[in-house]
Design goal:
The complex is a heterodimer of chains A (626) and B (238).
Chain A lengths: L1 H10 L4 H14 L5 E6 L2 H5 L2 H14 L6 E6 L11 E3 L4 E3 L6 H12 L8 E2 L6 E2 L6 H4 L17 H6 L4 H9 L2 H11 L11 H10 L6 E6 L8 H8 L1 H15 L3 E6 L4 H16 L15 E6 L9 H8 L23 E5 H13 L1 H5 L9 E8 L5 E6 L4 H8 L9 E6 L6 E3 L9 H6 L8 E6 L4 H15 L5 H18 L6 H16 L3 H5 L2 H9 L1 H10 L13 E3 L9 H5 L5 E2 L7 E2 L9 H5 L5 E3 L1
Parallel strand pairs in A: 1-2, 7-8, 7-10, 8-9, 11-15
Antiparallel strand pairs in A: 1-3, 3-4, 5-6, 11-12, 13-14, 13-15, 16-19, 17-18
Helix pairs in contact in A: 8-12, 8-15, 9-10, 9-12, 11-13, 12-15, 19-20, 19-23, 20-21, 21-23
Chain B lengths: L2 E5 L2 E4 L8 E6 L2 E6 L4 H6 L26 E5 L7 E4 L9 E4 L3 H17 L4 H9 L19 H9 L6 E3 L6 E3 L16 H5 L6 E2 L5 E2 L7 H15 L1
Helix pairs in contact in B: 2-3
The chains are: A alpha/beta (626), B alpha+beta (238).
């Protein structure tokens, strides 16, 4: 026990000079000649088997007794999730992708020990067939500006020394000792940073009003309750670089005069919770959190609160109600949360990405930051590129880049030669942007002009096989399930909207139903209490605006042009093409297909449940979907 | 325009009413002075000459909640160039605020909300009256048969006035309902049978039972039914 306490006291950093010294000693301790292998431990790569790869590396290194020459590190998300599991072999940063445990011994013997490059593990650009040896050569990374995400691939999120070695907590030193709280706010204001959670409210102004709000007790909150389908930026940041967020929060707390912080993290993100917890513990041990931070006299502590699985708790007032231990439902924000928030005290709530931006702005200056992006939306933004796209992953680009650049240059276009149809931006309450607007610059204002929004930065790409009515129905179903049920427009309105949309996808709708949808959208937009309800109609309204023909096809012709809505399609077997192989017969779950081997098969419509299994397995394109 | 009705027979000069806490408002083109710290609904409710703002989830005895949204009005904070919709029961009065309680847009919005409520509760008298007032004939949706509009008045009365919290709102979205602790179907010892909940209920969904305890509205969706619904939903979405 005494030993432990002594160790803790030794770790404690009590001044800027000591922190600089610590940084120097960490760098000195590190043998620069060691080869560093960083394995991506992000969500995507873990799902693809990154843990097995890591295990294989451990075993191989142990077997060959290379512990002194090779440093193995599990880092946060590298972003290129499509190609996972990923390993980057330093110091040249050779980029190997889609690894299997069998590849590991070869990597050690060839690349690490001899410096040879293993060609088959390199990334090949499908468009140009060019191979990229180093991480920076990969087209996916080359076109990005990874100001925040770059650290993710380099540091071990469970080791504070990694973060400090990279210059971590230097922004905190600068803020605490060289800047006044007002100066910090001024810098953030000048940078033009806007809330990255979706609202896009100017961060500096929020900080200022929170500083000016009266009251001794103020709270700082990090919103990590990311719940949009297709978005995982916050998760990856918190998993991969939790100290950057903590540092941002401490600076924010110093700026507004708060001593207490909360990280509200989704419980479905166990790794993010774990890494944030480790980060807080380590920051406490090093004296970067707690009393008298770095000898400045400023105190700040932070704790983690796990969310209870409600999407609506990502909304600031619902999040605070949940923090208070009440039902997570929003309240009217006619008085801002920055004046009367958590326990009716001034509260500063920002998104994970917003907090991660803060140390950069303090360190490099507002001018550097506002050099990126457009006049109205400065800086970089992290998007998750998902759906029908070749390069699924996290991308960080300056604001103002066009959707086309994002989808085709970085995203690599649509797989299997299909045609692009629409991209849904901003999560479930965002809108679908069709092809003719692909050259729109992506920033807060331009997207809302199109009836969509920036939201959390999810980009769901859809190809020609997507039914837009079905997409609208899916998102309304999602929001219906996630509505807290407090106000009538949202609870009842979304329920009725899903009723009408289900009628349309089942071919039971009339033309008047489109007017009903528009009426309901009006009630939601004007009448709902919180942003979830107010924006909930966006997926319906944007698809109605850009894809009205598809709605009309469902209503008038009782046809689903994309062949998705089950009630409106029919499968049949083309006798001229059927070879009688029996694959469809075996795959049919209801026994609707009959026929002798080598003879034409037939499909009994009365038994068909339209699951599409036969369509998927047929090798001769003999199953027709109409 | 300087003389306005404040209450009953008394008239008062607007300019002369510059008390410490006086707030000048324009409500439906009438200039009025009210004391600050109230909401629009509270301020306007006591003034004659201005049409009443309908409200279902509001009761002067408990804190406003803003759930029914029927009290929505249009307000402008910048002297009339930009108007937005706010819930009158929650919005605090501010100096120079312009309020419109009964415009075409407001009536349309209220009509839409009432249609939704009538769909949920077609047999409730209070909703039927409102529907008649706002010209809602037949809802365009599949009718429900519930009495409770989930305004939360009973819950707030039990918590704020009695301090018992014997009932609360449980579940989310359309599965929301009023229930006793641990999702019980009947009230136990925690209920003192004061009847406050039944008294404040705007739709008469709560009645006092023979044992002196309220019978909660019959919106309870048994778990089996929820399961069946979920199954249906997954079939429909898969």
């Amino acid at each position: 026990m005494v030993e432990q306490v002594r160790k803790l006291l030794e770790k404690r950093v009590t001044s800027v000079a000591e922190l600089d010294e610590l940084r120097k000693s960490i760098l000195q301790k590190r043998d620069q000649s060691r080869t560093c292998i960083s394995i991506c431990g992000g969500t995507g790569c873990r799902a693809a088997g990154a843990e097995e790869i890591l295990e294989a590396f451990y075993e191989e290194i142990e077997k060959r007794e290379l512990q002194l020459q090779v440093e193995l590190k599990e880092t946060g998300c590298h972003g290129f999730c499509e190609q996972g599991p990923i390993a980057v072999i330093g110091p040249k940063k050779i980029f190997y992708r889609r690894l299997k445990p069998e590849d590991v011994p070869e990597i050690i013997s060839e690349t690490v020990l001899k410096g040879n490059i293993i060609e088959r593990l390199l990334y090949v650009d499908p468009a140009t067939s060019e191979k990229s040896t180093y991480e920076s050569d990969v087209p996916f990374y080359k076109r990005q500006t990874r100001a925040i995400l770059s650290a993710n691939g380099e540091i071990d999120p469970t080791d504070i020394e990694d973060y400090i070695a990279r210059g971590g907590y230097s922004a905190l030193c600068k803020a605490l000792f060289q800047m006044s709280p007002e100066g910090v706010i001024e810098e953030v204001k000048k940078s033009g940073l806007r809330g990255r959670g979706g609202g896009g409210f100017p961060t500096g102004r929020k900080w200022e009003s929170c500083r000016q709000a009266s009251g001794d007790m103020k709270y700082v909150i990090c919103n990590a309750d990311e719940g949009d389908p297709g978005a995982y930026q916050d998760r990856s940041l918190l998993e991969g670089n939790p100290h950057a967020i903590l540092e941002g929060m401490i600076i924010g707390a110093y700026a507004i005069g708060s001593h207490r912080g909360f990280l509200y993290v989704r419980n479905e993100y166990p790794l993010a919770v774990r890494h944030a917890r480790i980060a807080i513990e380590q920051a406490m041990d090093y004296g970067l959190l707690g009393e008298n931070i770095l000898g400045s006299g400023f105190d700040f502590t932070a704790t983690i609160n796990k969310g209870g699985g409600a999407f609506v708790c990502g909304e600031s007032s619902a999040l605070m109600a949940s923090l208070e231990g009440k039902i997570g439902e929003p309240k009217a924000k006619y008085i801002h949360m920055s004046e009367k928030g958590l326990w009716d005290k001034p509260s500063l709530l920002n998104n994970v990405k917003t907090w991660a931006n803060v140390p950069l702005i303090i360190n490099k200056g507002a001018d550097w930051y506002s050099g990126f992006g457009t006049a109205g939306s400065t800086g970089t933004m992290i998007f998750s590129l998902v759906g029908k796209i070749n390069n699924t992953g996290l991308v960080e680009v300056p604001m103002g880049i066009t959707l086309r650049e994002m989808i085709y240059d970085i995203g690599g276009g649509i797989p299997n030669g299909k045609k692009f149809k629409a991209v849904q931006t901003g999560g479930p309450s965002g809108g679908c942007v069709p092809e003719q607007y692909l050259d729109t610059p992506v920033d807060f204002d331009e997207l809302s002009k199109l009836g969509s929004m920036m939201g959390s930065g999810a980009m769901i790409v859809m190809d020609e096989d997507t039914c837009m009515v079905d997409i609208a129905r899916y998102f309304i179903e999602f929001l219906k399930g996630e509505s807290c049920g407090k106000c009538v427009p949202c609870r009842e309105g979304l329920n009725r909207m899903s009723e009408v949309l289900n009628n349309i996808t089942h071919g039971k709708a009339k033309r008047e139903d489109l007017d009903t949808l528009e009426d309901l959208a009006g009630i939601l937009g004007d009448g709902a209490l919180c942003a979830l309800g107010k924006t909930a109609a966006n997926p319906v309204m944007s698809t109605l605006r850009h894809f009205r023909n598809e709605y009309l096809a469902h209503i008038d012709d009782k046809k689903c042009p994309a062949g998705v809505c089950r009630e409106l399609i029919q499968y049949s077997i083309d006798p001229d093409r059927c070879e009688g192989c029996g694959r469809c017969l075996r795959s049919c779950p209801t026994g609707a297909i009959s026929g002798e081997k080598k003879e034409v098969h037939t499909l009994d419509q009365s038994q068909c449940i339209k699951c599409g299994a036969c369509y998927d397995v047929c090798k001769f394109n003999a199953v027709i979907k109409v | 325009m300087t003389k306005v009705w404040i209450s009953g027979e008394n008239t008062i000069d607007v300019k002369a009413a510059d008390g410490i806490n006086a707030v000048h408002l324009t409500v439906d083109d009438k200039e009025i002075v009210v004391s600050g710290g109230q909401t629009i609904l509270e301020a306007v409710a006591r003034l004659p000459g201005i049409g009443t703002i309908p409200a279902l989830c509001y009761h002067p005895a408990v804190k406003p909640y803003g759930a029914c949204r029927i009290c929505t009005v249009e307000v402008s904070e910048d002297g009339g160039s930009k108007f937005r919709f706010v819930a009158a029961c929650l919005y605090p009065v501010k100096e120079g605020l312009i309020v419109k309680t009964n415009t075409e847009k407001v009536r349309k919005l209220r009509k839409g909300i009432i249609e939704l409520l009538l769909t949920r509760c077609p047999n409730v008298k209070r909703i039927q009256e409102l529907a008649e007032e706002y010209g809602v004939e037949k809802p365009r949706f599949v009718l429900g048969d519930q009495d409770c509009i989930l305004c939360g008045l009973c819950v707030r009365a039990c918590h704020e006035i009695m301090g018992k919290s014997a009932i609360n709102l449980v579940n989310r979205g359309i599965y929301r309902e009023v229930a006793a602790p641990f999702y019980a179907y009947e009230l136990g010892e925690e209920c003192i049978g004061c009847g406050d909940c039944a008294f404040v209920c705007p739709t008469g969904a709560i009645e006092m039972g023979p044992d002196g305890k309220p019978i909660l509205p019959k919106v309870k969706i048994p778990f089996a039914e929820i399961e069946a619904m979920m199954k249906q939903e997954t079939v429909a979405t898969s």
